[in-house]
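Hey, I'm writing a tutorial for new members on how sequence and structure tokens pair up, and I'd like a real worked example in the thread rather than a made-up one. If someone can provide the structure for the chain below, I'll link this post from the tutorial.
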Amino acid sequence: MKFLFKIIIAFLIIFNWRIPYLYNTVVLSMVITTIYYIFNNRTIPFTYFFQRYNAIIFIGTVVIAFVIFAITMFHGTEIMNNIQRRMWVLLLMLFAMIYVLPMFIEDQKSSAFEIVSIIICYTFALQGLIHLTAFLYEPLGDYLFEMKPEGLKEKVYTANVARFRLYCLSGIVFVELAAAYGVAFMLFFRLLLNNSIHPYFNSWVKYVVLFLIFTGTALSGRTGFVGLGLGVLLWVIFSYDRIFIFLKHNFFNILLVSSMVVLAYNFLLTPNQRKMFNDELFPFAFEWYYSYRDYGTFNVGSLEGTETHYYRLYDETLLKGHGVVPDLHTTYENSDAGYINNLVFGGIPYLILLIIYQGLYFFLPISIARKEKVFSNRVDATLFILFFLYIFLLNYKTTAIGTIHIVETLLIAAGSSYVTRYYSQQEEQN
């Protein structure tokens, strides 16, 4: 029951949607956690806020928010723009995640990273389950769709976006939600390498979790499959010589879950529900396959469209930007591409600053992991390097470096728990 409580708290923070009276679910999570601390611990722990890793990220976030404000002041553009608002939402989500970390970890600091990773994987599995249920049960899908802001619903009707992508219980949707699923994939494969014996990540259960994360990604957006690819790459790098041993120990569990999925699809779903999978979900999630089957080429429409969002920028733009996004500039066309948006807003200096800020999430964990040349440390160092690479890959398609608050919240949870585990193990050894 306590594990489920932790998942619900993480769910409220990570997927952050608007609610009456308390503004959003992040605030609700902190209210519930405060009550938990008062009745269980008789005190509210603030020690994690003073952890060097977390403090540096908080300071960096405030600095970035100030720089964004300064850029708009310098160019005389809109002061409280969307970028500025997103940074303050990010700060709130980071604050909430660090606030609840002591409750997630409790007295298990020596395994903090594993515990937080499992909570994150289960949180996304729960979202995947909700999304799948809403896809199959139309009244629930319609209810979750109507919860979304008018601007998002309008995009479905005007931009030919699949309606089912909004059947999630989340205020964060489309490419940003899909990007967050990618982080969950990578943490899952790290746990797989760790041979976790945690009761909630053992036997066939972990493959149910993987299936739900996969399903949630398919329903949210294909971007998350980039994280799946990097997660598989991490696993292959460190398990290429043990694949047959892995299959020997896990073949039955994989076969069991796969059989359950196939049986459910063929015997539990109605003909209309199977038709929805065949006509709507599969062509969207596996567009590359359908493109190859029908036209002989591996094409994904969203990636092809991204190429048109890149164009030549003037020297003045590269030097200092214009304090606006491209579609608000008189010269440039609208662009979703992250690097174009970064450069048009603040030029090369702003982009460099964002990269440095993003690096704050990874520099210390990588440094710690490289202190000892043991297997687990090499895996962890590679994981955080792949996280960093993942952000740069995401920024090709959308504005990602230092600005996707759901992803940054997951990264600080992973990084802070990893640092906590290291210091706890050092204390035990001394």
